[in-house]
Amino acid sequence: MKIFGHPLIETEQFYLVKEIEEIAKTPSNIVLKIEKFDIELMRYCKKNSLSYMVNVNDIKEAIFANLLGAKYIKASKSLAKELMPIAQNYLFDSQILGLISKDSEIEELAKANVDGAWFK
């Protein structure tokens, strides 16, 4: 299980982008963070082999994000738990991250086999 945003755990670096033009200004060796689901931005990242994480609000968006090469798919805790059997059944390459705000929620995600946790 991966944990992002916890003060005691060092992780990959993320860089927020909202438009394709912003990508040129990003440091190397980072994961792009796409907060608002954006098909064109995701297609650009896939075409250019760029690692990115995207927020999703439903199952359809998660399926599209996986098909468009997202490294991480971030969802609400309840949606992340709902997505895991789908991701496992369809062999998603993307990893599912559930949004949490307390350490005590890590165990809940782990028991649901969610790939990782993202602290708000």
Descriptive overview:
The chain is α/β, with parallel strands linked by helices. The chain has a single domain, classed as Alpha-Beta Barrel (TIM Barrel), CATH 3.20.20.70. Helices cover 36% and strands 23% of the residues. It is built from 5 helices and 7 strands; from the N terminus they run E-E-H-E-H-E-H-E-H-E-H-E. Strands 1-7-6-5-4-3-2 form a 7-stranded parallel β-sheet, with helices on one face. Strand 3, helix 2 and strand 4 form a beta-alpha-beta unit. The chain is globular, with a radius of gyration of 14 Å. The mean pLDDT is 97. It comes from hydrothermal vent metagenome. This is Indole-3-glycerol-phosphate synthase.
